[in-house]
Design a protein that fits this description.
Helix 4 packs across helix 5 and helix 4 packs parallel to helix 6. The chain has a single domain, classed as PX Domain (2-Layer Sandwich), CATH 3.30.1520. A 3-stranded antiparallel β-sheet has the order 1-2-3. It starts with 11 loop residues before the first strand and ends with a helix. It is built from 7 helices and 3 strands; from the N terminus they run E-E-E-H-H-H-H-H-H-H. One of its GO terms (molecular function) is phosphatidylinositol phosphate binding.
């Protein structure tokens, strides 16, 4: 008997890496993280993407997903601990791991994956207000266009050089 070859399995790898302190030494310093995504899933517009996001953008994303997911439970984010015992590096690393686990669970959930905010968060460098505008059709581009524009401009890869004065 001949068996047909199995359908290729959809695989999405998401990594949260390279935490960087921005505005170091100032009162408005924060850490952002590189989110690298590689997938063969049809759910995503771009097969690979690379963006930088900070914790409070994750907090916004989780709130939006929760709003739209109805009864589907949204994974937890690592806590916003103010009393952290140990070094800052240790805290940042713990948070990085937590953020990665959060995204890994989110991208495996079909309901959450249907939220275009998630796609813009992962695959464009739009700010939160711009993501909102885009999703509500008030931006200059559609969600797909914004993602493709970002993918084409390749700024996910060249932003390292550009950020230097």
């Amino acid at each position: 008997s001949t068996t047909s070859p199995p359908a290729p399995q959809e695989l999405t790898t998401v990594r949260v890496q390279d935490p960087r302190v921005q505005n170091e030494g100032s009162w408005n310093s924060y850490v952002d993280y590189k989110i690298f995504l590689h997938t063969n899933s049809k759910a995503f517009t771009a097969k690979t993407s690379c963006v930088r996001r900070r914790y409070r953008e994750f907090v916004w994303l989780r709130r939006q997903l929760q709003k739209n997911a109805g009864l589907v439970p949204v994974p937890e984010l690592p806590g916003k601990s103010t009393f952290f015992v140990g070094s800052t590096d240790e805290f940042i690393e713990k948070r990085r791991q937590g953020l990665q686990q959060f995204l890994e669970k989110v991208v495996q959930n079909v309901v959450l994956l249907s939220d275009s905010r998630l796609h813009l968060f992962l695959q464009s460098q739009l700010s939160v207000p711009d993501i909102e505008a885009c999703v509500q059709g008030q931006g200059t581009q559609t969600v797909t266009e914004a993602i493709l524009h970002y993918a084409m401009s390749n700024c996910g890869w060249v932003q390292e050089e550009e950020s230097r004065p």
